[in-house]
C-alpha cells in the first residue's frame, strides 16, 4: 500500500488550527496504517501565494485539496466550508483519504439491509470502477424497501434485483473497507480485517407520516449518500458533476 499524506495548512492564531490537526490525526488513525499527518504553517502573503493557500484550515491529501479547489494567487484568510462552517465535515476527509487508499472491497452495513445500505450499494456500484467489489448486508436482514428501489430508479439505478443479505454471507477475506450507516440503532459487527468508518444516517423507513414525506426521506438519504460516495474516486466526482 502506498503511503498517504494529509497536510493541514493553517496560519498562526487560526481558532480552527488545533481542531483541524486533531481531525486529521483521528482520521489517519482510523484508516491507517500508512497515513501520515503534517502541519504546514502559512505565515505570510508570499508563502500563501507559494502554497496556493485557500484559507485556514485547509487539507491536502497527497498534494490535492480536500475539495479539489485551486487558488494560484493564494491569500491569508479563514476558510469556509459547507454550511458556513470553519471546518469540513468529518465524512468528507474520511472519503477523500479513502479515495487515496484505493479500496477494492467495500461493504455497507445496517441492521435490516433494506434501505440505507441497499441505497449505498446501488449508488457505489454505479459510480465506482468495475474492479471495486461492493456489497451490503445486515445483522437482521428483511427485504429491500420498495421506496429504495423507486428513488434509485429516479436517478437511473436499478435495484429491483437486489435482496437483503446477512453479514455472515459476505466473503470477509475480500472486504477491505466497511462503512456502517446506522443512525439510532446499534450497527452490525463485521468480524473480518478491514478499515471501518461510521456514517450514521437516520433510517428513512422510520418516517411514518404522509406518503410524500416518506418518499422525501428516501430521496434525502439517496442524495446524501450520492454526495458522500462521489468523493471516493476522482472519476466518480466528475461523473456526479455532469
In short:
The chain folds into two domains: 4-100, Glutaredoxin, CATH 3.40.30; 103-241, Rossmann fold (3-Layer(aba) Sandwich).
How does this model look, in words?
The protein has 242 residues and is of the alpha/beta class. It has 2 domains: 4-100, Glutaredoxin, CATH 3.40.30; 103-241, Response regulator (Rossmann fold, 3-Layer(aba) Sandwich), CATH 3.40.50.2300. Helix content is 33%, strand content 16%. The chain is built from 7 helices and 8 strands, in the order βαβαββαβαβαββαα. The strands form 2 sheets. Strands 2-1-3-4 form a 4-stranded mixed beta sheet, with helices on one face. The chain has a 4-stranded parallel beta sheet with strand order 6-5-7-8, covered by helices on one side. Helix 4 (116-127) packs across helix 6. It is globular, with a radius of gyration of 19 Å. The two termini are 31 Å apart. Residues 236-242 have low confidence and may be disordered.
Mass-distribution shape: globular
Radius of gyration: 19 Å
The CATH architecture of the largest domain can be named as 3-Layer(aba) Sandwich
**What is the H level of CATH, i.e. the homologous superfamily of the largest domain?**
Response regulator
Structural class comes to alpha/beta
Strand residues, percent: 15-25%
Number of strands: 8
Please mark out the parts with pLDDT under 50 across 5 or more consecutive residues, or reply none.
236-242
Percentage of residues assigned to helices: 25-40%
Write the H/E string, N to C.
Answer: EHEHEEHEHEHEEHH
Instruction: Give me the CATH fold name of the largest domain.
Output: Rossmann fold
- CATH class group of the largest domain: Alpha Beta
Q: End-to-end distance, in Å?
A: 31 Å
Amino acid at each position: 500500500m502506498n503511503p498517504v499524506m494529509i497536510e493541514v495548512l493553517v496560519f498562526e492564531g487560526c481558532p480552527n488550527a488545533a481542531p483541524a490537526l486533531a481531525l486529521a490525526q483521528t482520521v489517519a488513525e482510523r484508516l491507517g496504517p500508512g497515513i501520515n499527518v503534517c502541519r504546514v504553517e502559512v505565515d505570510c502573503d508570499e508563502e500563501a501565494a507559494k502554497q496556493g493557500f485557500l484559507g485556514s484550515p485547509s487539507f491536502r491529501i497527497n498534494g490535492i485539496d480536500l475539495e479539489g479547489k485551486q487558488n494560484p494567487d493564494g491569500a491569508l484568510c479563514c476558510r469556509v466550508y459547507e454550511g458556513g462552517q470553519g471546518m469540513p465535515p468529518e465524512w468528507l476527509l474520511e472519503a477523500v483519504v479513502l479515495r487515496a487508499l484505493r479500496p477494492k472491497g467495500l461493504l455497507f452495513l445496517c441492521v435490516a439491509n433494506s434501505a440505507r445500505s441497499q441505497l449505498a450499494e446501488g449508488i457505489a456500484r454505479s459510480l465506482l470502477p468495475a474492479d471495486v467489489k461492493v456489497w451490503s448486508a445486515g445483522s437482521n436482514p428483511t427485504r429491500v424497501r420498495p421506496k429504495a428501489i423507486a428513488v434509485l430508479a429516479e436517478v437511473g439505478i436499478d435495484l429491483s434485483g437486489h435482496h437483503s443479505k446477512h453479514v455472515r454471507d459476505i466473503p470477509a477475506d475480500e472486504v477491505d473497507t466497511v462503512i456502517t450507516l446506522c443512525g439510532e440503532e446499534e450497527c452490525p459487527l463485521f468480524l473480518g480485517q478491514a478499515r471501518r468508518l461510521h456514517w450514521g444516517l437516520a433510517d428513512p423507513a422510520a418516517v411514518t407520516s404522509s406518503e410524500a414525506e416518506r418518499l422525501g426521506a428516501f430521496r434525502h438519504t439517496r442524495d446524501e449518500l450520492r454526495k458522500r460516495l462521489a468523493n471516493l474516486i476522482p472519476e466518480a466526482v466528475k461523473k456526479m458533476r455532469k
